[in-house]
Structure formats: structure tokens, C-alpha cells
Design brief:
about 425 residues, alpha/beta, Arginase, Chain A, 2 domains, two-stranded antiparallel sheet, 10 strands, binds manganese (II) ion, metal ion binding, Ureohydrolase_dom_sf, agmatinase activity, metal-binding
């Protein structure tokens, strides 16, 4: 038994009287009240069937391992989750749905929007999807604190990247809207890996055209991103101007969290004021705390809305944690705060999400891409824990269907893509 140490003499203090003992009791809390204990017990109740299935599949795909390998679940060729450093990466090593008509078989679909033509300072976000997928291999699908195992409790696929058109913002927007509309129409929740923030307009447009219902947006950023044009085009400073022009995406349901610093243009503020969007600055968050901020954001985003979309600009986090981004700005969220907020927003259910502005060429040790991965898995984990994944499915009342490509029919058209060649 340990007696409390007297701080001055460093010797054990004599036993305290009953009243003092009572007041000290809180220093020895009931362990069973801790998340650590609860999660430890909860793990026993999570099934392992999908993991068994994956290992069975890995052996069938990758040959049995060498005779000297004692663990007979290890194949010769790396297949599936293990080892984390090996393999051809999709997001979280989820199955690659090369045939995009198959995404409807999964609860959620990751799709890349590799585009940085809307960038107004540092480029490089065209490599965002690759960077995020690469470091996502670090994760297991299980989260101890949430007591959630994504592999067992939901299904996820990676549809690869959208064919964007470098140097042409509008054609890229059309491609992105089409891709998002396709995924959303199948009922699978789209998770879009940007790309710069200009993609926020076409992603929301793609989703909005599949439903007559109203969509709210929770937008994490240091920047307001709501001016009409920047440098004469619809750059990454403009998505919410155009998104909130859509008939079923009202500006009053746009909640912008973490805004502040010296990079918010006055043009954007004027639009936010005219349209009466909801801006919660970083200092507002500091004053209110995470719980109240989340409560307020949810209330405003869901006010009269049928579903909520999450747009997460990685630069909302203090740039000391996310160097790999286009417009770094100090004074933003700590990672723990941002993740806490995302989890609370996602716990009420989201109909889709995007994570933008990750620029691997400016990243250090993959930390920015890692942060982006966390935002996604934390949102998914939170939705799974709250039983909200797929809740938006019943609201898709105008699903769209696009024809599959036909090589011969396309060849009859006027133009045909040539392979990229220098000179
Ligand atoms: Mn930003």
C-alpha cells in the first residue's frame, strides 16, 4: 500500500482523518468510470469476422507463406492490411472499386479530386489524394477509445481519382460534380480527398442535384472562402459563394468554424454579411469550448436542413501542425480540438465530407496528410459509434445515372485524348 508523500519532507504522511480521506477519494477515481476501462471491456464485444475473412482472402490471393513462418495466416505476397509498410495503397487499404458501378455496395466511398488549379499561393494539392492514401496505411481500422472497428462495423471502398483537367477549373468542376453525384446516388457516402478548396463548390453541387432536400454545411477553415471570384476565376477562395447559390443549399445553413487571422479578404466578409452565414472564429471557439461550439454549429447547420455536409480545410489547424498546405496560418486549432469538433459534428450524421488543401510537396514527414487521415477516420468512427452512417440514404430522391464509357462510340466523336508528351 502506498501512503501519500509529504511534499516538503518527502516522507510518508501519517494516515488522515475520515473527512480528509473522503476529500482525497477523488484522487483515486473509480477506474470503471474511465474511458480506458470501458473501452477495454467493449473491445470484447466487437466481432472479428471481417478480419478473419480478410486473412482467409489474403492467403488465397497471396499463396501460403514459407515453411519457416510460424504464423500460418501470413501469405507469401502481402495482401490486405498487413504489413502496413507494404502493398499498393488505397485509403486505409480499402478495396479498390476499379469498376465505379460497384461503389453502391459500400457504406462509404473514398474518391480523390487531384486538382490545384484553384490555388492562389502554394500549389501541390493535386498530390493530396496520393499523400493521404500513402500515410493512411499507418492506421488499423480499430479505435480503442471509441471502441469501434471500421472493418467490422462498416464497409469502405476507394474508387480512385476523378479525371481532373489541369488548368481548366470549369471542366474539372463538371467532372467532380459528376463523380460526386454518381457516388451519392448509389447511397454510398462520398469522402472526397482534395485538391484545393475550389472543389467545395462542385462536390456540393454534385450531391445537391441528387436530392430535393435541403443541405447544410459545416465548414472548418481559417479562411471564409465565400467571395464570388478571385483573380477573375472561381478559385479556392470562392466555393461557398457558388454553393450557397444552389436552390437547396441555403447560406443560413452554412457554418464556418475557425475563421480568423490575416488572410480573410474583405470581399469575403462582405458576402458573408450579406448572406448571413454563420462565422464562429477561433477566439469564439476558445471562449466557448469544444462542446458548446459543436452544439451551436450543429444547431445552425441543421436548422431546417435535412442533411449536413462536412468540408474540412486542413489549414484550420495551426500551421505548426500542418506545414503541407497552400495558405498556412498560425493560431488555428490544435489537432485535438479539431478532431473533437469533427467527431461531434459527425456524430449527428453527415451526408458526405471533403478534406482539402493538403499539399504533399510542402509537407514534412507526412504529418499534414496524417492529420487529414485522422479527420476522416475520426468522422467515420464517430458516425459508426453513433449509428448514423448511411442515415441520409432515404433522402436521395433524384438519383442520377450516367452511362458507362463505350470506346467505339466515343471514338466516333470529334475528339480523342492523346497521351501526354513533352515537346
Ligand atoms: Mn483555408
Amino acid at each position: 500500500m502506498f501512503l501519500p508523500l509529504d511534499r516538503r519532507t518527502r516522507r510518508n504522511r501519517p494516515p488522515a482523518d475520515a473527512a480528509t480521506r473522503e476529500s482525497r477519494r477523488r484522487h483515486h477515481p473509480d477506474l470503471s468510470k474511465l474511458r480506458g476501462w470501458k473501452s477495454m471491456q467493449a473491445e470484447a464485444g466487437i466481432p472479428g469476422d471481417e478480419w478473419d475473412k480478410e486473412r482467409r482472402w489474403a492467403l488465397r490471393m497471396g499463396l501460403t507463406g514459407a515453411d519457416s513462418i510460424e504464423d500460418k495466416s501470413i501469405p507469401t505476397f502481402a495482401r490486405g492490411e498487413l504489413p502496413h509498410y507494404a502493398g499498393i495503397n488505397t485509403f486505409l487499404k480499402a478495396p479498390y472499386t476499379e469498376d465505379v458501378t460497384e461503389v453502391g455496395n459500400y457504406d462509404a466511398t473514398v474518391l480523390g479530386a487531384p486538382f490545384d488549379g484553384g490555388t492562389t499561393y502554394r500549389p501541390g494539392t493535386r498530390f493530396g489524394p496520393q499523400g493521404i492514401r500513402k500515410i493512411s496505411a499507418l492506421y488499423t481500422p480499430y479505435n480503442y477509445e471509441l471502441a469501434v472497428d471500421l472493418r467490422e462495423q462498416m464497409s469502405l471502398c476507394d474508387a480512385g481519382d476523378i479525371f481532373t483537367i489541369p488548368g481548366n477549373i470549369e471542366k474539372t468542376f463538371d467532372q467532380i460534380s459528376r463523380a460526386c453525384a454518381h457516388v451519392f446516388s448509389t447511397g454510398s457516402m462520398p469522402i472526397i480527398l482534395g485538391g484545393d478548396h475550389s472543389i467545395g463548390f462542385p462536390t456540393v453541387r454534385g450531391i445537391a442535384e441528387c436530392t430535393s432536400k435541403t443541405i447544410g454545411i459545416v465548414h472548418f477553415d481559417r479562411h471564409a472562402d465565400i467571395q464570388e471570384k478571385d483573380l477573375d476565376e472561381r478559385m479556392h477562395t470562392t466555393p461557398w459563394f457558388h454553393a450557397t447559390n444552389l436552390p437547396n443549399v441555403p447560406a443560413k445553413n452554412l457554418v464556418q468554424v475557425g475563421i480568423g487571422g490575416w488572410q480573410v479578404p474583405r470581399e469575403a466578409v462582405a458576402v458573408a454579411r450579406e448572406r448571413e452565414t454563420n462565422i464562429i472564429t477561433m477566439s469564439d471557439v476558445e471562449k466557448m469550448g469544444i462542446d458548446r461550439t459543436a452544439e451551436m454549429a450543429l444547431e445552425m447547420a441543421w436548422d431546417g436542413a435535412d442533411m449536413v455536409y462536412l468540408s474540412f480545410d486542413i489549414d484550420c489547424i495551426d500551421c505548426g501542425f500542418v506545414p503541407g498546405t497552400g495558405w498556412p496560418e498560425p493560431g488555428g486549432f490544435l489537432p485535438r480540438e479539431a478532431l473533437g469538433l469533427v467527431s461531434r459534428i459527425a456524430a449527428e450524421g453527415i451526408c458526405g465530407m471533403e478534406i482539402v488543401e493538403v499539399s504533399p510537396p510542402y509537407d514534412t514527414s507526412d504529418i499534414t496528410a496524417l492529420m487529414a487521415t485522422r479527420v476522416i477516420v475520426d468522422a467515420l468512427g464517430s458516425m459508426v459509434a453513433a449509428g448514423k452512417l448511411g442515415a441520409h440514404g432515404g433522402l436521395i430522391d433524384k438519383p442520377v445515372e450516367f452511362p458507362m464509357g463505350d470506346y467505339d462510340a466515343a471514338r466516333d466523336g470529334a475528339r480523342w485524348t492523346t497521351s501526354a508528351r513533352k515537346g
